[in-house]
Amino acid sequence: MPGLPRTDFLLDPDVIFLNHGSFGACPRPVFESYQNWQRELERQPVEFLGRRYHDLLDEARAQLAAYIHADVSEIVFSENATMGVNIVLRSLDLQPGDEVVTSDHEYGACTLAWEYLQASKGVVIKTMPVALPVKDRATMVEEIWAGVTPKTKVIYLSHITSFSALRFPVEEICARAREHGILTVIDGAHAPGHIDLDMHAIGADFYAGNLHKWFCAPKGAGFLYARPEFHDQMDAGIVSWGWGDRRGKDQPASQFISRNQWQGTRDPAAYLAVPDAIAYQQAHHWDEMRAACHTLVAQARRRISDLTDLPVITPESTDYFVQLATCPVRTASIEKLKTDLYDTYRIEIPCMEVHGRQYVRVSIQGYNTTADVDALMDALAALL
Prior knowledge:
Layout: E1 16-17, H1 20-23, H2 28-43, H3 45-67, E2 75-78, H4 81-91, E3 99-103, H5 108-121, E4 124-128, H6 137-145, E5 152-158, H7 170-179, E6 183-188, H8 199-202, E7 206-210, E8 222-226, H9 255-261, H10 269-272, H11 274-283, H12 286-308, E9 324-329, H13 334-343, E10 347-348, E11 351-354, E12 357-363, H14 370-383
Parallel strand pairs: 1-10, 3-4, 3-5, 5-6, 6-7
Antiparallel strand pairs: 2-8, 7-8, 9-12, 11-12
């Protein structure tokens, strides 16, 4: 359990890898496809970039759109979720005093992006605490909504958070925000491949996702979804040839697609390997594999709770976590714990202190086994 061959991944066999959540790990067949696309590009760069580029990306984008239940016109590839969030920030017409409501569980890089907007435009960032342990989804919604005022223009949240691994009730929050005329921006860095996604059911105005994590695509693959009514105002990471439709009258493209898809010379191989990541999931019964991973990570967090005598931070349902679980610990130095776990026991796992509390975050991907969790427990028993 859970069942993916460890040999399908390029991971160091001498390391117990319990940190898929940070940067992911790409299966060999997907990585080989990625390298094959790079070779194809180098074999005839002018043919590839000048004549084939858009058709290839459109085809890969169509397969991704079907996977996340979006229209192909609603998504563009981006390097990562942080890039997607930054594109949205550049596109919003926010004025001094406008409020952005977010949570105290958000990823630091994207928080910095909002703080940049606060410093440059006078936007007010309101960070709402979401208490741990979590009671229920309804309470989470109300904790976020407590920050909403008539000045609130945007709600920004992670779908699955980085530090707490908490699955936020974004569907409920997006629906409520729409009723009040508030825009929603969702950071889906950990969601694709980790949980089933349906962009229309989620109901966000903007959604930025990573594909290099749980989706198992190569590094440098992500996407940005935007509702159609915002496409004409969407900015891009840079201004280049795609600023306006440069593809010719026989191949019309929306400003949203054109501005973000054609940004000068760049390597699209990671994007073009996305269909292979989808095929890998299909070949390995991804729903069953995720369920097995959830069972194992739930066991791991119960064992850590028994060891530390500290309570788990969420109920056990997949409504709150799936393959990623953050577990409270107590130690004299969280940095030393992280160092000792890796240097002495060769266990790669995040250890962090947030809001004055200490945690380890356990990732379980299909290549992990009960033996990996046993090794972690032996190490924690010795070190804590």
